[in-house]
Each structure stands twice: as structure tokens, then as C-alpha cells.
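quick one, 437 residues, struct below
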Amino acid sequence: MVDLQKKNYTLPIIMMIALFGMISFVTGLANPMGVIVKSQFGASNFMSQLGTLANFIAYAFMGIPAGIMLKKIGYKKTALAAVVVGFTGVGIQFLSGVASSFIVYLTGAFVAGFSMCMLNAVVNPLINTLGFFQAKNRGKSDEESNKKANQLLQFGGSFNSLMATIVPVLVGYLMGDAARASIKDANPALFIAMGIFALVFIVLFFVNIPEPHAAQAKEKLSYATLFKFRHYLLGTIAIFIYVGVEVGIPNIMNLFLTDSTSTGFGMDKTAAGAIVGTYWFLMLVGRFSGAAIGNKVSGKTMLTAAALLGLVFVTIAIFAPITATVNMPVFKSDISFGLIEAPVSILFLVLCGLCTSVMWGGIFNLAVNGIGKYITIGSGFFMVMVCGGGILPAIQGWIADMATYMTSYWIVFAGIAYLLYYALIGSKNVNKDISVE
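---
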């Protein structure tokens, strides 16, 4: 590993946090787009989640290649390549509106997923490493340095949540109350995404990005050795489940709220978008709070508390009658708060945003703690498992078709239960005898 001592990497850290936001903006488009394709193409709940599935299944194909790119060409070149791929993916989604083609839309979502995987492979290990060394340079212990790394991941997650809050609200506003919304209605959001990609490419090109693992570029690292770290392997399963939970909660919620049949609530798309946006807003609040205390509270403690509270909220949501409603405060499209009548179950699912907010940073920090030089290929395989964000919501959509929307949330309950196990037991490093230098 190259020497990071006595260097100030504030600008690269800020750049990585900005990339966190871009990942969320593009990924978040799949949520409201699911409602659009259901309306435009008469898709089932399962088919409406295929865009999300295409976006996240790309991680399964690109995760390991992204790790190899990271090791061979470094963080900056991998990120620049990812931005180009992302611009192309969003452009294809725009063309799907011109062609009015569901297949073209899925292709665009798949290509965009390649980009998100590559960017995630860059920003997570780099910001984690820089946070650790920033604290070590100030004389902090390894435990305190790990907390600093977790804190920076939470800051990145905060900006990620800010973008995720904006997307469903923005696209819901663009769709309006039209009974037959189409992909073309979302064009302004797609143009914004492409503009962000173009701007970030220019800025990133001129910013000095450190390459802390450049010394291992020619060293062959073994996945077989990496997988001997039990806490890392269990952590990859945890991230698969976590992303599925994080995405599945709002996606199925949006379908339920906008479903005008007897199984749904029949709310207009703008109001539903505001409610879903509030879920992401609470993730923003949770991540800011997590970042504020991240240098004092360990990732393990955060993940444990979040999982316990999440299990309580999901349990109440599943068993609460959907006929019981409440006027809940929501984040509206005009950047203000207001009251919208919604089922009590939806209120508690929205509150889950406070729980899912700190989980990503906690899981990643716990999983890579102690794996040293294997963090580059480890980050790549970690991204493979992000495909859970497409697979679990698709399973939820299938269960919603076969049974009810709320029944599908047992998938979420089981997933959060595993995350609690990982926080309490699975995250302990029991393989400290493996050389990581």
C-alpha cells in the first residue's frame, strides 16, 4: 500500500461523496419507472420490477470485472469509465421512451447497472481507506480509525439518500395524475441524470485521486484466500440481503399505493411519490445522524440497533389492517412538508428508512475490516452481491401477485433478521492468522 501519511485528501473524499449521490440518483429512477411501465405496458407487479432487476443483476456480471479494473488501472480510470457507461445507460432509457419499447428500457437499466457497480466498487473502498488513514495520521487507534471510516461512509450515504429522496418525488410530479403515464413523462429526470454524468466526468478528470493500493497492481490476489475470511463472506450475503430490503420496501410500497384494484390503496402517483420520497428522506436523516455519531459508535452497534428497530416496524406493518389510515407527514414535490392520508402499515414501512439508512456503511465497514490488501478484489465481489437489490424486490413482486402486498414483506422481515445475526455474531473476524500485508 502506498504511503498516505501526512497527506490531505479532503477533495478526493468530497468527490467520492458526490459519486455516492450520483449512484443513488440513477439507481432510484427504477422505482418510479416501475410504476410508469406498469401503467404504459400493462405490466404485472413482477414485470414492473424487471427494470430494478436488470439494474441490479448487472452487478452480478460486472462486480468481479470491476474489482479487476480497480486493481489493474486504479480508482480514477475505473470511475471515469463508469461515468461513460452510465451516460450511455440513461441515454438508452431515454430512447426507450422514443421507441415506446419495454425491452429497450430494460436494456438501458441493465447498462446503467454496469456503471453503478463500477462506481460502487470505487467509492466504498477508497472512502473507507482514506477515512482510516486520515484518523491514523491524527494518532488514532485502529478501533477509532475504523469508526472514522464508518463515519465517512455514512456521510457518503447521506448524499446518496438526498438524491434518492429527490428522484421519486420528481418523477411522481412529472407523471402527475395521468391515468396513462409513459416513459416520455420522465424525460426531464433522464436529462438531469445525463447532465450530472457529463459534469462529473469533467470534474473527475481534473481531480487528483489517490491510488492507495497501487503497489499491489501487479500482485496476484487469490479469491480463495479472500473467501477464507468468514466475516467477509457472511458480509457479502448481508449486503445481498440489505440492498434487496432497502429497495424492496419502497418499490412494493409504491405499487401498493398506486394500485386501484381491491388489493391496493388507489392513490394518485404524485401523492405516492411523495410518500416514497419520504422513506428516502428518512434515510437521509438517519445517515446524517449516523455520520454525526459515527466516530463514537461502532458499525456493529449501529447495525444491531437498526436491525432490531427494523424488525419491530416491519412486524407492525404486516399485521396492521390496511383499512386503518393516518394522516402522515410527507416530503412533497415543492420541497415542503404536508399531510397525506395513508394506511398505518405504510407509515411504519416509511419509518424503516431510519433503520436501513446506516446499514450499508456498517456492513461494508465490518466486512472489509482486517482484510488489508484484499480490499480491491473484495470490493469487486461485494458489488456482485448488490444484485440482491433486483432479485429480492422481484420475488416480493411475485409474492404480491400470488398473495397480497403486505404478505410480501415477510421477505423483508427474514432479511433484516439475518442482518441482526451478522451484526451480533457473523461480523467477528475469526481469521486473523491470514497475512494481509
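The mean pLDDT is 83.
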